[in-house]
Amino acid sequence: MKINRQLFWIIILALILRLLFLVFYVDLENVNRWEYGEVAKNIINGNGYSLFYIDGNKLEYLYSESVKPYPSAYMPPGYVYTILPFFLIENEIITNIAIILFQIFLSLMIVVFLYKLVLEIFDNRTALIAVLIYAILPEFIFSVSSITPTIIFHLLITIILLRLYIQEKSKNTGYFIPILIALLIYFRVEFFVYLFILMFYFLIKKKFKIIFIYSTIIFILVLPWVIRNFIIFDNLIPLTTSSGLNLYRGNNSIMIGSWGDENIHAEILSLPRNDKFEVYFNKLYSDKAISYIKSNPIEFAKNIFIKNFELWIFNQKDSRATNILYIVPWLIILLFSIIGFTKKNSSQKLKYIIFVFVYFAVVSSIFFALPRYQTMMKIVMVPIAATGLLLSYEKIKIKFYK
């Protein structure tokens, strides 16, 4: 693809802002690699794909040379194996720098593919505004330092949407799309929800060939992880052992987002301490969540609205979501997105993007919403916000000239 001059300078701007952020704001000695980094350390140090262990009266997941952790399927393997080579570097600070620089490179790729996506749906002016928003928005700049799959999610979802719109125009079967969807599932297992929404749409449109091809390719590509889990745990764990905890965190008697109380902590410590630990751990939380939902159906229904408020507006319990550099840009993006939806034929043009919104709303309703879920969703709001910004500008201009 030939990159025009305006897009080139936006890419340069995005690069400069992210490098400045890395140099002046990132504490390279204290970068949180979350569970992904701990699993990577365990693999490097001969413990295999493992995470949790019991340390005295505490459930731990931080890597320790003196402990043999239990086998894990808590985190999907996509991001773990993406950052794994960086952990071969013995210096922690250099490892952190290398991962962040890699994610900065991916963010520049996002600029290019986001431009192509918006150009496919709208026009060049809208596409340039969209990528400019992506380049300068503080939240997107910060995301390069987050050792999570956020940046890769942004990249893959942008490419998937682009290919879906190209497939629709060409009337050809996009064999590359199911490969990308399977790949994204290896990074975010709940992306299966988007796949179901997409399959339902194809079913309505009677695109049975596409349904068969997508289902077959994705099943084949995801199967190795399913087989691995069955061999390790002697149980059918299709994708992850974290679903029970996430279900509980969204559905419990304490508060949305809670990890549980002292009673649950005691029950965790009493679980069998063997290779099937995560199976018992997952079942403990899922049983309690399902029990709560059955006993409190009205509360469950009411919490759906609260969780979607936290997804679409802000989570008042999380200090990150109330930061002025987070909440003000988000409300501006949300406002212009609403305006963008008023454009003629926007719902038809944006259907694959709307499916992403439905996917996040469903996941948040069943489980719960963290600020990073909003960050992941925000990438597909940028094209609509750019449209809304242009619509607002045109209306103000017309009013001014009158």
What would you note in describing this structure?
With 402 residues, this protein is mostly helical. It contains 19 helices and 2 strands. A two-stranded antiparallel ribbon has the order 1-2. α5 (124-136) packs across α19 and α7 (150-170) packs antiparallel against α8. The longest helix has 30 residues, at 92-121. The protein is globular, with a radius of gyration of 22 Å.
Q: Which tags fit this structure?
A:
single chain; mainly alpha; two-stranded antiparallel ribbon; 68% helix
Q: What form results from the Cα inertia axes?
A: globular
In the predicted model, the low-confidence regions spanning at least 5 consecutive residues are none
**Helix proportion:** 55-70%
Instruction: Report Rg.
Output: 22 Å
- As laid out across the biggest beta sheet, the strand order is 1-2
Mean pLDDT figure: 92
In total, how many beta strands?
2
N-to-C SSE string, H for helix and E for strand = HHEEHHHHHHHHHHHHHHHHH
Helical stretch count? 19
